[in-house]
């Protein structure tokens, strides 16, 4: 009974810490797009993050990550590249992902940055990006698109190796990958890290040898690795604090 009571108290305390999200809309070219905004407690101004979903879409898990990041002191905008669609099967996720026009995604990423920069409680020079899976690749794309981005976290997302493209990066980068990821080869990760480093950019790469793709998401029943996910979260928190809170 005592342990049950303590668990209940802990659950209530954690709920009290979690930042609430609110729906927001903003312009992306001629379109109006929506996202979910999480704001830390306190006065601000705060650093901010563009939070980019996996190929499933803007689901509860991604919103939870944005809420956790707000609890760390960031205004977190969870964007919706799928215009309200959320996949529940891999086939549907693949179909929706392939249907996102590249130019529209780039426009949406820029629009998210501009929206955060327009907020009075956001530090304009302390905006970063973070994403997982498909969103990890788009986090890198944000660093390629936006020269004033202050930090980018890539969680097992697609990579770029063209030096002409990589020269555009100004933001420090943290790359988190699984050594058993069948979609992103370890050698490609190493080549990416080396190419960015040789250009004089700041980059940290962490490869978890026994982890596969999407190992940070507990909804990935077969591939979730709790210890690696906890370590990846700590690295993320430390990296963002070092680059966005200085």
Quick gist of this model?
The chain has 246 residues and is α/β, with parallel strands linked by helices. It has helices at residues 2-17, 60-71, 90-98, 102-117, 134-145, 163-166, 186-198, 226-244, and strands spanning 21-28, 31-38, 46-52, 75-79, 122-132, 151-155, 173-178, 203-208. Helix content is 41%, strand content 23%.
Blueprint of the fold:
Blueprint: H1 2-17, E1 21-28, E2 31-38, E3 46-52, H2 60-71, E4 75-79, H3 90-98, H4 102-117, E5 122-132, H5 134-145, E6 151-155, H6 163-166, E7 173-178, H7 186-198, E8 203-208, H8 226-244
Instruction: State the domain count.
Output: 1
Q: Indicate the CATH class.
A: Alpha Beta
Mean pLDDT: 93
- Quickly give the structural class: alpha/beta
Give the low-confidence spans.
1-17
> What is the second-level CATH architecture?
3-Layer(aba) Sandwich
List keywords for this structure.
8-stranded mixed β-sheet, 41% helix, 8 strands, single chain, 246 residues, alpha/beta, disordered N terminus, Rossmann fold
Describe this structure in words.
By secondary structure, the chain is α/β, with parallel strands linked by helices. It has a single domain (20-244), classed as Alpha/Beta hydrolase fold, catalytic domain (Rossmann fold). Helix content is 41%, strand content 23%. The chain has 8 helices and 8 strands, in the order αβββαβααβαβαβαβα. The protein has an 8-stranded mixed β-sheet, sandwiched between helices. α6 (163-166) links the parallel β6 (151-155) and β7. The longest helix has 19 residues, at 226-244. The N and C termini lie far apart (45 Å).
